[in-house]
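2024-03-11 09:14:02 INFO worker-7 job=invfold-0412 stage=load source=structure_tokens
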């Protein structure tokens, strides 16, 4: 990999977009490497993924405008599909993905963060969809996920006006869950990931699928999705152990980690 680094700490995988000279901008190669990196993650050994950018200035400053500037209509649509396919893969990845947004998250950067389950950011983070100022629309899911996350009115205001927002406003409108000093961001992301990773992995995966799938249908259908995923957790070793430990009157023994089976 030229532009992506991957490391694992315990049950947590850390994916870093490492193209700092270009503020981690997304070109075709970066998208392909993100895709390959996620697909190579061992889901038996990793329970949560953190996605971040290299350096202190930028998470992802956007898609590579130099690459996009000469595209034809057909090529533009194909480039949009490439980004959308990668971001949808992240969104539907079986385990939770946390975006640790360490600076600029503009255009494709805002879009990739929105494909993650949870977003936390540093105080210097800046979010926006500036595409209309370049003569295009957001192309990697920005018109769809932003409206779902912050509401259509706020999304339209940001997208139509190509208006960037700072970390405090992103927190206020619900685009991010928390804001931290730059130096504390990765520790906070790892603490959040560790808190998720200590819980039953099968159940966490089922919760992600229930929430994501349920948001796409009406409530009657959504409840059925939950019922089936709820039922799927029973008879697993994690469920048997978790409930037995809860019911144990003598909890002097140290709780063992869940086994993901």
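2024-03-11 09:14:09 INFO worker-7 stage=emit residues=261
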């Amino acid at each position: 990999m030229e532009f992506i680094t991957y490391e694992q700490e315990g049950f947590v995988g850390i994916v870093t977009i490492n193209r700092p000279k270009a503020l981690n901008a997304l070109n075709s190669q970066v998208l392909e490497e993100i895709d390959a990196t996620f697909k190579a993650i061992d889901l038996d050994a990793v329970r949560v993924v953190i996605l971040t950018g290299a350096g202190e200035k930028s998470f992802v400053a956007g898609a590579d405008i130099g690459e996009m500037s000469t595209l034809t209509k057909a090529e533009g649509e194909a480039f949009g599909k490439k980004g959308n396919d990668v971001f949808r893969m992240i969104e539907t990845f079986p385990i939770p993905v946390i975006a640790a947004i360490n600076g600029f998250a503009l255009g494709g950067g805002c879009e990739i963060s929105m494909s993650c389950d949870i977003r936390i950011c540093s105080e210097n983070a800046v979010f926006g969809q500036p595409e209309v100022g370049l003569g295009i629309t957001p192309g990697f899911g920005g018109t769809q996920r932003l409206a779902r996350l912050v509401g259509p009115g706020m999304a339209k205001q940001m997208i139509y006006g190509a208006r960037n927002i700072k970390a405090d406003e992103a927190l206020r409108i619900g685009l991010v869950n928390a804001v931290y000093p730059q130096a504390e961001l990765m520790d906070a992301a790892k603490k959040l990931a560790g808190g998720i990773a200590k819980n039953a992995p099968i159940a966490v995966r089922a919760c992600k699928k229930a929430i994501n799938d349920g948001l796409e249908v009406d409530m009657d259908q959504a409840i059925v999705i939950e019922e089936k995923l709820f039922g799927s957790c029973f008879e697993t070793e994690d469920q048997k152990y978790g409930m037995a430990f809860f019911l144990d009157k003598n909890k002097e023994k140290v709780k063992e980690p869940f086994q993901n089976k």
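2024-03-11 09:14:09 INFO worker-7 stage=report msg="DSSP finds eleven helices and ten strands in the chain."
2024-03-11 09:14:10 INFO worker-7 job finished
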